[in-house]
Amino acid sequence: MILNPAMLDDNLRHKFLIGSIVPRPIAWVSSMSTTGVLNLAPFSFFTIAASHPMTLLFCPQIPSGSGIPKDTLLNIKELPEFVINLTNEDTVIPMNLSATDLPRNVSEFEWAKVTAAPSETIRVPRVAEAPISFECKLQRIVTISDAPGGGSVVFGEVQMIHIRDDLYQENGRISLELLKPIARLAGSSYARVTDTFNLDRVPPPPTK
Fold first, then answer.
1. How confident is the model at residue 49 (pLDDT cuts 50, 70, 90)?
2. Which long-range contacts (CB under 8 A, 24 or more apart) does 47-52 make?
């Protein structure tokens, strides 16, 4: 089968992507409006951009239904800083609650019943219950499309990291067993990281 994305409607394109690009880590992004209203929302279009300087990226989409940009993106354009909190099995319920579409003047922190903890370098608070949080200052926004089904790539340069003490091991390693990360699949499905395997990288052949 060969598919031409130009021949698929927005809904089918979206379903194909979220069903094939799996599993996806979840950025639980806290942001703040200029009037001080806190926002919290999960984004599974999320990954690492670079380690020097430490930079993360996530991609808020323009909903096909409303065509209105996410509050997170609007907030970051007004106040160019945010926190990427990581989710796990312990925080999956409040994370899911924070995905509810609420009016912009209502805080998802209160709706999801999570604690806003002060950050060290930025004004936007982190989620105290998150196992790891990255304080970020906006590096740049790359707009893919302003149309419904489009979106942007938001790059954030990490200023400070908060990590639960028991997770951090020697040489910068993180305990996967204690972190208990979750990942997004298609629809309402999620994955746990409970089955892993090791595979060493093969060195290049010797030069003659």
1. very high
2. 49/155
> pTM score, two decimals?
0.95
User: DSSP letter at 90?
Assistant: G
Give the chain's domain count: 1
Q: What is the CATH number of the domain that holds 74?
A: 2.30.110.10
Helices (H), the chain: 10-20, 71-78, 92-97, 108-112, 176-179
Other beta carbons less than 10 A from residue 167's beta carbon:
18
d(CA 56, CA 64): 25
Q: What is the pLDDT of residues 70-123, one digit of tens each?
A: 999 999 999 999 999 999 999 999 999 999 999 999 999 999 999 999 999 999
Residue with the two structure tokens 């926190």: 83
Q: Which residues contact 100 (CB under 8 A, 6 or more apart)?
A: 108, 111
Which amino acid is it at 36?
G
